[in-house]
């Protein structure tokens, strides 16, 4: 039997809202979204959204059925969201329908895109239902038990080699074990952030706080706010925080003129510092990523300090307090200041592989902005790349080497992503989409090549800009007219 559909049909609404009315009300400041042909007003709820306000703001005024369905458990669509319903959505006004009666004229490009959008979305929703029937959204707790045993082993080894070590080699082995622990436990926290473990928000959030905050010193709330936006506007230069790394990296030349980041809420200029780093970014890619964890500490604290409404602030601050008690004490057990410094750098910098794995699937992919004519599934497959590897290496990549599949089905437990791959390949062949997958080495080459392509454009871009500026100045020069001769 197929699972109960997440597309519940609330009681028929007498209030009909057309596209024109929807756009007008959104321009007036209302927070309205469309899900399954129903209009929902989220003005009061938006500040309490567990995934942050921006995740909703990117959906205002449009049909975001696939996004809501992908990122939320079934009970949200079946029960919770219906309390915010204000009417039925009618995409086309009656007058527009009447004017479109003689529709024997060739279809416009927008109409073709819209038809493709509907076709892909219908096939994508059918695929999701099929995966549910086949049990790929169900959690295999045995898998998580084995993962937990691996984490516990690495964490224990880091303590043993630290507390009972007798030489520098022992202490560096401890640092490597701790780095591997942080690398691996991030995958577990990732699933908790997507409610993909127990599928209960309070329980999974508690797991995330223990793993990320208490043991890693990072805010799971900050990660969720950033990551959910990334899932909705993947690889959008202005909106996606996961590709906004100025002054160090630029994955597209579109940022050369500067832009206002909607996530960071500030102007990001391509200044002289950015020009320097981006010009050599293909050489600096791995070295800079080695310092990524230090930046995450800063981002976590800024989130907990500045986020206006966050329901788990106290729990996360308590979790970070635990981390900043045990980790400094742990370092204090080392015999000298030099070894402490070396330990900090080794344990933190060797987590760079996690940052490589995260950026690998997106830095070399499309950053085009195709708008609402593109379906959610098509956008995820265009902007995301999977990494092919043997099954025995899944533990190292954490299962998230299947980033494209994960983006299509964010709530699917990682250990099921490989099993979903044949379904996704079949889906791509059916609807005519490209499934990008390369081995780890090829994926790294693609990213480095993409970074080099952007780096090579820096000098050319500013030479052209300088030439255009000079031409503009010359065109503004006013030549004084000759004085008229008087009689």
UniProtKB/TrEMBL annotation:
Superkingdom, natural source: Eukaryota
SUPFAM superfamilies according to UniProt: Cytochrome b5-like heme/steroid binding domain (SSF55856)
Annotated GO biological process: lipid metabolic process
Keywords: Heme, Iron, Lipid metabolism, Membrane, Metal-binding, Oxidoreductase, Transmembrane, Transmembrane helix
Keyword Cell membrane among UniProt keywords: no
Record's keyword annotation contains Nucleotide-binding: no
GO MF terms held by the record: metal ion binding; oxidoreductase activity, acting on paired donors, with oxidation of a pair of donors resulting in the reduction of molecular oxygen to two molecules of water
Pfam families: Cyt-b5, FA_desaturase
Cross-referenced InterPro entries: Cyt_B5-like_heme/steroid-bd, Cyt_B5-like_heme/steroid_sf, FA_desaturase_dom, Fatty_acid_desaturase
Membrane-topology descriptor: Multi-pass membrane protein
Location of the Cytochrome b5 heme-binding domain: 14-90
TM region positions: 159-182, 283-305
Biochemical pathway: Lipid metabolism
Main location: membrane
Similarity field: Belongs to the fatty acid desaturase type 1 family.
Protein name: Cytochrome b5 heme-binding domain-containing protein
